[in-house]
Structure formats: structure tokens, C-alpha cells
Specification:
By secondary structure, the chain is α+β, with helices and mostly antiparallel strands. Helices cover about 35% and strands about 30% of the residues. The protein folds into two domains: about 140 residues, Fructose-1,6-Bisphosphatase, Chain A, domain 1 (2-Layer Sandwich); about 110 residues, D-Maltodextrin-Binding Protein, domain 2 (3-Layer(aba) Sandwich), CATH 3.40.190.80. Helix 1 packs antiparallel against helix 2 and helix 4 packs across helix 8. GO terms for molecular function: inositol monophosphate phosphatase activity.
């Protein structure tokens, strides 16, 4: 695929940070870890990856703003552009030696996500998308799965953990989806959940209580792979509400209806 200069910058930042993350993952027991909150750990690797990404992106586009997980938001001199960064989505997996985690970088232009990169350095899977240019994984064009009946589908989700609200409401939604699908999966990294919907591994995904850096790149990947993304009300306010539902047109519509009934 032909990449724009901006996408090349994003890929370069993700792969540079990813190489360091992969090394740290191999020595996970020796990491210096600080606790930010219940179930939400911040490692030295996480902070180092963010510094690397911010430095690389700032060198290429010094006027762009930043919205990143580990730092205060920065408004750049170019107010029409903003980087949205998760330097380590799946931190708990990382700290437990589970190789399901990723770097996620999105570029927002005038309120729209126009480019996204998700990189799992351990699996060596690089997902990229540009608005209007399609979605790719390691140069292979991606398309969402074509199954349309929920009983044939595997659906991904995120489960609220210790310290997050909404456990009882979530259990009702989970029960409703369990009764209508062939399986539900919880991998622990929303960015990869969306990338795997884009690649057809999952048929759909839903979660609430997310942050913009969890989903910004992934929702563009799904759309560029021919899928549909909305908030749980069927609107387009995912980055504001923190809830999301994704899949192909039929699955996303049916999944929304199932969750609404619950």
C-alpha cells in the first residue's frame, strides 16, 4: 500500500516505541511499576513508550496537539490537528506476561479521525488506516467478516474491573449477548479488539467506559475495512461517551438491538 508522509511518521513512531516495549515485555518481572488506580497499572515501559512517540511525532509535526493517556492534554499552535495516543493498550496483560497489547496512534483533523496505527510488537502485527484509503495489516488489505446472523458470530467485549462502575448493568448486557451468539471473548485491549473486528477475526465488539485513546485508531480501521461503528445509542459520539459498538452492517445493527433490550 502507498502511505502518506503522515502515516509513515505514525508508523515510525509506533515501531520505534514498539521495539522497546517488546524488550521490556521480555523482562516484565524486572519492570519498575507504579500504581495509578485499581486495575489500572502504569509501568515504566508505558511511560517510556509515550515519551518516544511524542518525541517522534513532535519532530515531524511540531504544531500539532496531543491527547495521550499518561500526560496532560496539549493544545498545539495548529488547532486543527491533534494526535490521540495510547502508548500501551493492554497494560494489565503486559504486566502479566500476556502478549495481547498494542500501541495506538490516531490523527484527528478538525474533529475527524483521518489516520490510525495499531501495533502489537510481540505478534509483529501492524494495522494502519487512512480515511478513504482502506485498512491494512502488514500490507494485507483488511475486510470485516461477512457473517450476518448473531448465532454464527464471535463477539468481543470489555468487562468492567475493580474500581469501575456498572458491573450489574454490564452483566445483563453480557447475558443477552451470550444467549444470541456463538461466543463472547474478552482479550483486554480495546484497540486490538477493534483491529481484530477490522481483520475479520471478531464479528463484532462492544464496550463502554472507554477513553478516546482506546478507540480512536481502531474505529477508523473498522470503517476503512467496510465496517460500521457507533456509540451504544447508535450515534457518532464515541469519543465523547466512551461507549462503542462495531461490526459489519448487519451484525452491528443486531448487536445494538440486543444491547438495547438488555
Amino acid at each position: 500500500m502507498a502511505r502518506s508522509a503522515l502515516l509513515n511518521v505514525m508508523v515510525g513512531a509506533a515501531t520505534k516505541a514498539g521495539r522497546a516495549l517488546a524488550r521490556d515485555f521480555g523482562e516484565v518481572e524486572q519492570l519498575q511499576v507504579s500504581v495509578k488506580g485499581p486495575g489500572d497499572f502504569v509501568s515504566a515501559a508505558d511511560k517510556k513508550a509515550e515519551r518516544t512517540i511524542v518525541e517522534e511525532l513532535s519532530k515531524a509535526r511540531p504544531g500539532y496537539g496531543f491527547l495521550a493517556e499518561e500526560s496532560p492534554a496539549v493544545e498545539g499552535s495548529d488547532r486543527s490537528h491533534r494526535w490521540i495516543i495510547d502508548p500501551l493498550d493492554g497494560t494489565t496483560n503486559f504486566l502479566h506476561g500476556i502478549p495481547i497489547f498494542a500501541i495506538s496512534i490516531a490523527l484527528e483533523r478538525d474533529g475527524q479521525i483521518v489516520a490510525g496505527v495499531i501495533f502489537n510488537p510481540v505478534m509483529d502485527e501492524l494495522y494502519v488506516a487512512e480515511r478513504g484509503g482502506g485498512a491494512f495489516m502488514n500490507e494485507r488489505r483488511l475486510r470485516v467478516a461477512q457473517r450476518s446472523a448473531l448465532p454464527d458470530c464471535v463477539i468481543a467485549t470489555g468487562i468492567p474491573h475493580l474500581g469501575k462502575p456498572g458491573h450489574a448493568a454490564y452483566v445483563k448486557k453480557l447475558a443477552a449477548v451470550m444467549m444470541e451468539t456463538s461466543g463472547v471473548r474478552r482479550a483486554g485491549a480495546a484497540a486490538l479488539d477493534l483491529a481484530w473486528v477490522a481483520s475479520g477475526r471478531y464479528d463484532g465488539f462492544w464496550e463502554d467506559g472507554l477513553k478516546p485513546w482506546d478507540i480512536a485508531a481502531g474505529m477508523l480501521l473498522v470503517r476503512e475495512a467496510g465496517g460500521f461503528v457507533s456509540d451504544l445509542s447508535g450515534g457518532d459520539r464515541m469519543l465523547e461517551t466512551g461507549d462503542i459498538c462495531a461490526g459489519n452492517e448487519a451484525v452491528q445493527r443486531r448487536l445494538l438491538a440486543t444491547l438495547a433490550k438488555a
